[in-house]
Amino acid sequence: MEIEVNGKKIFLRSEKDGDFFFIHGAGCTSEVWKKQLRELGGYAIDLPNHGKSEDFEVNSAEDYAEVVKEVIEELGSFIVVGHSMGGAIAQALARRADLKGLVLLSTGAKLKVNPKLLEGLRNDFEGTVEKLVGWMFSKSYEGRKDREFVKNMIIGCRKDVVIKDFEICDKFDYTQDYEAGLKFDCEVLIAVGSDDVMTPVENSEYLRDKLNAKLAVINNSGHMVMLEKWKELNKVLKEFSESLR
């Protein structure tokens, strides 16, 4: 389905009704959430400039959050699940919108990006994406199809959009806000894969401590928990949803 925001179309993927609204990460699309949508229901957004959504001017997590806020307010109230850059957007969104709950998945209070990664994306896009995908899954994961799926999804995203996403991640930093006592007006769950090298467990432990949140560490999973350990993640999300009723 599509929703119009400021005269431009935003695409949403949905298979059945549900409590969840999913926000993907850098260079991805709503397709990464297919195993959650099938089992848990709800909506997943193609962020502006990604997938089937039209182009918007976005330069920060807050810019993305403003668009997502418009979409959510048209649809209802949800538990928002944000992955990686989507987690940064979800944090910005939680300052602006009335949410049923908030799930910060494989993310952090800041998302500093290695300058060599940004340089690689500019100078050798496909080669760097291939390396990036290697870091996104745990070493033990044998799901070659999922690795190929993620690689093709990111390469299929425009190069300038992927670079901008990682620049937005690099700028994102709410640590001062949390140190000053920032809290959200909803229950918060933090979730992360035990083997995540992109947003390590300590990032999630910091969020847990600052937000008085629950923390679920999903064993033997890397950054792409929604693919690598989807059954375990779905169970955690379902239990969180039930705890809010």
Automatic annotation (TrEMBL):
The keyword Transmembrane helix does not apply. Keywords: Hydrolase. GO terms for molecular function: hydrolase activity. Residues 21-234 form the AB hydrolase-1 domain. It holds the Pfam family Abhydrolase_6. The keyword Hydrolase applies. InterPro entries: AB_hydrolase_1 (IPR000073), AB_hydrolase_fold (IPR029058), AB_hydrolase_sf (IPR050266). This is Alpha/beta hydrolase fold protein. It comes from Ferroglobus placidus (strain DSM 10642 / AEDII12DO).
